[in-house]
Amino acid sequence: MTSENGFEEIHVLWISEGMSCDGDTVSVTASGQPAIEDVVNGLIPGLPKVHLYNKVLSPTVGGEEFLAPFRAAARGDLEPFIFVLEGSVPNEKINGDGYWSSFGNHPDTGEPLTLNWWIDRLAPRAWAVVAAGTCAAYGGIHAMAGNPTGCMGLADYLGADFRSAGALPIVNVPGCPVQPENFMETLTWVLRHAAGGAPPPPLDDMLRPQWIFGRTVHEGCDRAAYYEQGDFAKDYNSPKCQVKVGCWGPVVNCNVPKRGWMGGIGGCPNVGGICIGCTMPGFPDKFMPFMDTPPGGSLSSMMIKPYGAFIRRMRGITNDTLNREPKWHHDREVLTSGYDPRWRP
């Protein structure tokens, strides 16, 4: 159903049969701003009516009842819809005599329908295509060196120049798993655009939402001041900068230290964990071995050490001064604050 400016009603077909752990779906259920329940129940102003089909969140008992809208969309009988993929895309051209991942069976032959079969039919018909999590966006864990499946991200499979039926590029929302509000905020923007109430979401050159991934972990980290002062943690119990114990925050695009994980609380560096770059296209291969000092971390921390030590000492002196009250705070019989009005009656 459409209005003059956009859709009044839209379907969200969510497949998590990519090489996946379903962690992104589970994570998204923790979102509060907005909550997925509020979106589905029509409590967010300006959005079309949303019909969500996700195997974890489905009220159906599964089987053909659950598959019905997916089959209808593949035939071209259900529109408009947003196609959400969770999990990486295996290369079915190298599957030998079997298959890597399937979603339902062919109604005539009973043979499993591969994830790739569904992508080939759903993605071109979808009004928008969204990759939920790093696996769907860039391949993630399943695409690491040595894997036998030839896994890849959705843009690797469909092509970086892919455009949906709504003329949108793939929208990547990485994270392992995806941060709940990051995904729901992005999906809400796409839905508002579908309703005609917003422009397309601005994406960077890796197809990530710019307003979410435009800054590094380090730029939003509460520990960043320790780095500037050359004060580094030697173990994970310390509140100081964790670059020397394996944190990649200075070079990773992610907003988790600012946003937190659930209800504004948590997030890797916020709770003593290092950033291992799980939102990045190069994850995990380029960030291993985890917990080793990142390349460049030793040099940068060494160069900032003398500056940081000097600044830390100067700030200590200033801090001591600022912790003393002004000398005119007294109860003697003379005013010593320097009060001297320019105008007198």
Please tag this protein with its features.
345 residues; 2 domains; Rossmann fold; Cytochrome-c3 Hydrogenase, Chain A, domain 2; two-stranded antiparallel ribbon; alpha/beta; 10% strand; elongated; single chain; ferredoxin hydrogenase activity; 7 strands; five-stranded parallel sheet; metal-binding
Helix-strand makeup class: alpha/beta
Average pLDDT over all residues: 93
Tell me the distance between the termini.
76 Å
Q: Largest sheet, order of strands side by side? A: 2-1-3-6-7
Using the 3D structure, state the CATH architecture of the largest domain: 3-Layer(aba) Sandwich
Estimate nothing, just give the exact number of structural domains. Answer: 2
According to CATH, the homologous superfamily of the largest domain is NADH:ubiquinone oxidoreductase-like, 20kDa subunit
The amount of helix comes to 25-40%
CATH topology of the largest domain: Rossmann fold
Name of the top-level CATH class of the largest domain? Alpha Beta
Strand-residue proportion = 5-15%
SSE string, helices as H and strands as E: EHHEHEEEHEHHEHHHHH
Task: Show the helix and strand layout.
Blueprint: E1 9-15, H1 23-28, H2 36-40, E2 49-53, H3 63-75, E3 81-86, E4 102-105, E5 112-114, H4 115-122, E6 128-132, H5 134-138, H6 154-158, E7 171-173, H7 180-194, H8 210-213, H9 224-228, H10 256-259, H11 297-322
Parallel strand pairs: 1-2, 1-3, 3-6, 6-7
Antiparallel strand pairs: 4-5
